[in-house]
Amino acid sequence: MSKKITYVSADEAVSVIRSHQHIHLGGVANVPAILVEALVRAADAGQFHDLHFHHIHTEGAAPYGSRDYEGIFFDQGFFVGANVRSSVNAGYADYIPVHLEETPEMYRSGALPCDVALIQVSEPNASGHVSLGTSVDCTKAAIECAKTVIAVVNPCVPFAYGDLITVDDIDIFVRDERALPTVEFPEPSALDMAIGRNCAELIQDGACLQMGIGSLPTAITRHLGNHKNIGIHSELFSEGVVDLVEKGVINGSLKAIDRGKIVASFLLGGKRLYDFIDHNKDVQMRDISYTNDPWIIARNPNVVSINFATEIDLTGQICADSIGTRIYSGTGGQLDFVKGARRSPGGKSIIAMPSRTKNGKSKLVPILTPGAGVVTPRADAQWIVTEYGAANLYGKSLQERAQLLINIAHPDDREALDRAAFERFGPHFKAVYSNMTEVKVPVYVKK
């Protein structure tokens, strides 16, 4: 029989926290905001100092990463969101480079301490189980390892099936009823739609997809309306997936594991998305060590992973976490899914991006910007997609890769890239590879 729940105030709950402790914070849309606010009040009262915070990315205000609390709070996240990006790059917060699949093991192995877990959960069901709602990520591991678990019970948190916990796993309970933060992503642009079309041409009926969120993933889903028997096994998914479920395109009927189920670890979007997962047994929200394990991903056939990049060099090195030395996001789960898709029977790994930045600078470059992080090594690169086409780098030499990537660069950038390739590889490149188009591998050029 589950224990009886007794609620305390947020201020009373955080009073158990002591200086120098490491705190896991529930992430993405499921941040326990009432506890963060209580921590700020306690910090202003001088209750503690040198608290270390760990999480995936978080929505909302992030005083735990602010220079205003230097020496009191120090944020060390596994992924860098917009709310802490400036602080990380100024040195008032920090980033722990890690593939997201490995974040639970950081806690479980003891490599990273977890003294207190601050989480937010659904209301309990009749058996005393609560759901972590929109964000399981590495929170379940934190709960297992923390000395103290403080949970906000919030009726706005959807009861999502998958990896549940019980009220017996929780030490201190707080009540809150504020709505989860929502994000409305912009409508796909014509550029997004062109890239989305080129991605969709590589997705076969019966594929099992991994995509992210934002206008480009939305564009991709808009081009999948005539596909059949699509499955989802992803780190996260967007409302475009809900559209395809309602159209009957996504049913997961050809998945080898979790057949008929949509599997993810965290979500961010609008209320429609959160309502979709509430008490929906066709959706399984799982520990990220399950969703992002390349060997588990590869058990499904025809996995197509679609990820994004900030820049790619002419040998296929893919940067996705930084702009030069400036950290923009994080390693995330990109390489987890690149490797999983590549091992999947019939699988494909796609990295999609516009050919240019918003400022008109080519994102296909001779060499990466100094300080840029290589998230996916050149040896793991497969399909690269821009609005000008798609190039398969798998099995291609450095010089072949350079020409294939030049073919899908912005037309105004191709001459400079061609010159850089000639300077790097010598006259053989100019003599043999400059005319290479579709000889070795299909290049789907925008029509």
Structural notes for this entry:
It is a single chain. It contains 15 helices and 22 strands. It is of the alpha/beta class and 447 residues long. It has 2 domains: 10-175, Glutaconate Coenzyme A-transferase (3-Layer(aba) Sandwich); 190-433, Acetyl-CoA hydrolase/transferase C-terminal domain (Glutaconate Coenzyme A-transferase, 3-Layer(aba) Sandwich). It has an 8-stranded mixed sheet, sandwiched between helices. A 7-stranded parallel sheet has the order 4-3-2-1-5-7-9. A 3-stranded mixed sheet has the order 16-15-20, covered by helices on one side. Helix 7 (215-222) packs parallel to helix 8 (239-246) and helix 14 (414-425) packs across helix 15. The radius of gyration is 23 Å and the shape is globular.
Name the structural class. alpha/beta
**Integer average pLDDT:** 95
- The unreliable regions are 438-447
By CATH, the superfamily of the largest domain comes out as Acetyl-CoA hydrolase/transferase C-terminal domain
| Residue fraction in strands | 15-25%
Count of discrete domains: 2
Radius of gyration: 23 Å
